[in-house]
Protein: Thioredoxin domain-containing protein
Organism: Dyadobacter endophyticus
Amino acid sequence: MKINNQMKAVALAGATLLGSSAFASDGPGAKAPKQGVWRGEFVISETHIPFNFEYNAEDKEHPILTLLNGSRRDDFKVTRHGADSIFVKMNTYDAALVAKVETDGKITGEYRSLVPGFRGNALPFSAEYGKDYRFVERGKEQPTRHNLSGKWDLQVFSKAKMPDNVALLKQEGNKLTGVVMSTVGDSRELEGVVQGDEFVLSHFSGPNPRVYKGKINEDGSITGVISSGIYDNTKFEGSKNDKAELPDPYKLTYLKEGYKKLDFTLPDLDGKQVSLSDDKYKGKVVVVEIIGTWCPNCTDQTSFLAPWYRANKDRGVEAIAIGFEQKDDLEYAKYTLGTLKKKYGIEYDILFGGIADKKVASDKLPALNRMMAFPTTILIDRKGEVRQIHTGYTGEVTGKYFEDYVAKWNKDLNELIAEPAPAGVSSASVGTTKSSK
């Protein structure tokens, strides 16, 4: 279903409702979702992408919809309007679930982009109360002789072969959970089932929904298709490999020959031009985070960096987020990046880089060999020289990969902070060198 010209009006109406205390009266004829667990399902052509959520309206003025993916829980504020409709803004993602409670108690609606002028797809969905399974009802599982637990080498194909992925899967009986890691980040937590010689996994936590549907071959290898709610399908094939690894994320993006420093001048959310040469950053260790609010790995990285910065900002360290958004407009970026700032309590500068495009980002940051992924995180020492560039981000669901990342992050930042400030820089810029944890 194509998004029509009413999309802007829907976006504005939703933003207005979310920003006000207006709330529909629970008068005669009013219908609200039942509290508890629900099973939803997107249907795109012949592809079905199920998802689970909880609806909680104990606080009638501020109901919450919680998307469930394995152990992951993502909360979203619900705005009711009219007698039977709800609007669920996807937090920092400029999209929403817009739905109606039917007379039989079911919910029907669409997942809509709210980006002004965006001509994409609205994804229809429906949901039923009281169903807590994702793909297969309890008692209807088919026996399987396979166990997919372990590490997998995945090759993903679009128009051409893409960089290899690594999947970490865990199977208990028929239940299957896991995560797929790539050079740009991870898939977030996947949840699904193994049935006979087939398996299926899905995820929906705010950005576009996704499903991995595959077949287990006689030799133990797997083949299948990844379907996303808004983007094209891609094929994959994989084999179990305990030694499977991704390319080193610290070597994918680097400075071009002849460069030691990063240089940019970009507007903050008030339109003020900000540069690394500003006095605020002189003599400081600086973390530069290149992100977009539309990017789930970016928001996961921000959820890590924002509290880390609050705990370490007095140690002579600064941070800058450069956001590349879905519309090349500062006023729009002020809204989207401002939402991100409020959501995660960001206390460092946020700049607007332009439209969300890797070529544009590469042009704005010409010292880099290329902009390969959102997010990309750059560490700059007290002399203003780039010391480290990390491509992508793998979150907590990746287990040891995330733990190793955090350990290296703290070690490297502690070492950079402990280095002496250049001559002529005041001691106030150095800060305390107490180690972070």
